[in-house]
Amino acid sequence: METEKKEEAAKTKEEKKSMEDSRIKETGQVTLNKNKEKVNIHLLTIIGEIEGHDILPSSSKATKYEHILPQLASLEDSTEIDGVLVLINTVGGDVSCGLALAEMIASLSKPTVSLVIGDSHSIGVPLAVSTDYSFIVPTGTMLIHPVRMNGMIIGAPQTYHYFQRIQERITSFIAAHSHIAQGEIEKMMMNTQDLSKDLGTLLVGKDVVEKGLLDEVGGIKRALEKLHEMIKTFHPERKEESNI
Fold it and tell me: Which residue among the candidates 42, 114, 121, 122 is catalytic per the annotation?
């Protein structure tokens, strides 16, 4: 009887591990729950290009907008998840969908921390600043440039105003969730001195923090430490439990 119980427990553990591995492979998401504080942290990755209304080629590494949105709603509704860590390495992508994801992350009631581990370009900038606290590794980069659109562009004043309104949505969001003025962001967007064939500004590591876009230079260790601190503040009982 005892042997059967052990075999059943081992089988259950193996099935859970298989499901977790499959989840990481399919969505790049996992729950971090083996810490000494006994809290559940959801790890969300935003990698490659943000796929929105148009399907990208199968050879492209992409974060699918329609997969992340319901996941974020599920995280907000869950009583088991204590905080969210967002790892970012993206070249940007669909502007409308990327901004929608940033708005969703910003509206979560649970403590959130982002960590730029490579690049956070274009619409990746609002995503990086959307959390309660943000980090970038020393070699990480952020690229701020004007909005670009695919497809037919009509040469009319209305087109210009449409682009301008989209950029205002982006710059106002960044300014509201960081420590940099909207006017300064717009100046960096239109900078002609930084990129040889384009408008915009490229910032690396500490320059990002000095400009006020993100909060701190650091890696995964510091990001998790900060998130644990925030969870203890959000749930005072966690502090008491950790001292037992």
Answer: 122
78 is catalytic: no
Cβ–Cβ under 8 Å, residues 191 and 200 = yes
Phi-psi region of 81 (alpha: psi -120 to 50; beta: other; left: phi over 0): beta
Does the annotation count 122 as an active-site position? Answer: yes
- In angstroms, rounded to a whole number, what is the distance separating the alpha carbons of residues 14 and 17? 5
The per-residue pLDDT for range 165-204, each reduced to its tens digit, is 888 999 999 999 999 999 999 999 988 888 877 788 999 9
Q: At 59, list the tokens.
A: 């050879």
What is the C-alpha to C-alpha distance for residues 72 and 106, in angstroms, rounded to an integer? 11
Of the candidates 204, 181, 201, 203, which has an alpha carbon nearest to the alpha carbon of residue 191? 201
Distances in whole angstroms, Cα of residue 60 to Cα of each of 18, 47, 55: 26, 11, 10
| Catalytic entry in 121, 145, 177, 228 | 145
